[in-house]
Design a protein that fits this description.
This protein has 240 residues and is α/β, with parallel strands linked by helices. It has one domain (2-238): TIM Barrel, CATH 3.20.20. It has helices at 14-24, 39-50, 68-78, 95-101, 116-119, 129-138, 140-150, 213-238, and strands at 2-4, 6-8, 29-33, 56-61, 82-85, 105-108, 124-128, 155-160, 162-163, 169-171, 176-178, 180-181, 204-207. The strands form three sheets. A nine-stranded parallel beta sheet has the order 1-13-8-7-6-5-4-3-2. It has a two-stranded antiparallel ribbon with strand order 9-12. The chain has a two-stranded antiparallel ribbon with strand order 10-11. Helix 6 (129-138) packs antiparallel against helix 7 (140-150). The protein starts with a strand and ends with a helix.
């Protein structure tokens, strides 16, 4: 189980600041979410990665305009082991990806319900904990259905962001409240993770926060404590 500091790209050029953090801290392993970057911007990002100490990028969030050569580059140069995408109901998924990397690509749970038929065509599920928790709070019936599907397929990777005490935004497309957020004000906004068994945490857990890398590392240390406490609880129940 790895908790990976992540280069997220939602907020303007903050990804460049994150890359500076990664270089200054000599971090060797990250997750990469270039979901808001154009092809030219990604070229700049890859050059910055090349100039850093990063050796492995095991988990990457894909975007539709990535060609097969870009995926091959990530696998070859940075040992990428798993990719995630949104459902094809949201964004088209290039067929050429599936020819080479079907088993590495996972479908993320978003506002679009998980589809068993679609999941059978991919390598598993990318469980976004905050999206799932938001559903648990606001739509318990849909949450129960999602959890049923979740238990039928392998969870290959995770997104971890935060849940706010009060709703953080209104989803304009769905016209619904949202408690999940990509910006952390304090680590206690991660306490909702205590609602989820350790088995739902995969080998590759990306910290999907717009916060700086040092703040993401603080989040990672807090999450490790939560997971450690959950493991101890299970051991006590089983008498181990």
């Amino acid at each position: 189980m790895k908790f990976l500091p992540t280069i997220t790209t939602i907020t303007g050029t903050k990804w460049k600041e994150k890359m500076k953090d990664v270089k200054d801290l000599r971090i060797e392993e990250i997750a990469l979410f270039p979901t808001c970057l154009t092809k030219e911007q990604r070229k700049e990002l890859y050059e910055l990665i090349k100039q850093s100490y990063v050796k492995r990028i095991p988990f990457v969030h894909l975007r539709t305009d990535m060609d097969i050569e870009e995926l091959e580059f990530l696998v070859k140069e940075y040992d990428t082991a798993v990719f995630n995408v949104h459902s094809e109901k949201e964004y088209p998924i290039p067929k050429e990806w599936l020819v080479r990397f079907k088993e590495l690509i996972c479908i993320e749970n978003t506002h679009t319900p998980l589809d068993e038929k679609e999941l059978k065509e991919f390598g598993g599920i990318c469980l976004d904990f905050a999206h799932m928790e938001n559903l648990r709070i606001l739509e318990p019936v849909k949450y129960a259905k999602e959890m049923e599907i979740l238990n039928k397929f392998p969870i290959r990777c995770n997104h971890i962001s935060v849940i706010k005490k009060d709703f953080s935004s209104v989803d304009e497309k769905q016209r619904k409240l949202a408690y999940d957020s990509h910006f952390m004000d304090n680590v206690f906004e991660l306490d909702y993770l205590k609602n989820y068994p350790v088995k739902y945490f995969s080998d590759y857990c990306a910290i999907e926060l717009e916060n700086s890398i040092p703040e993401q590392i603080e989040a990672i240390e807090y999450i490790k404590k939560i997971v450690g406490e959950r493991n101890k609880f299970v051991d006590n129940i089983l008498g181990r």
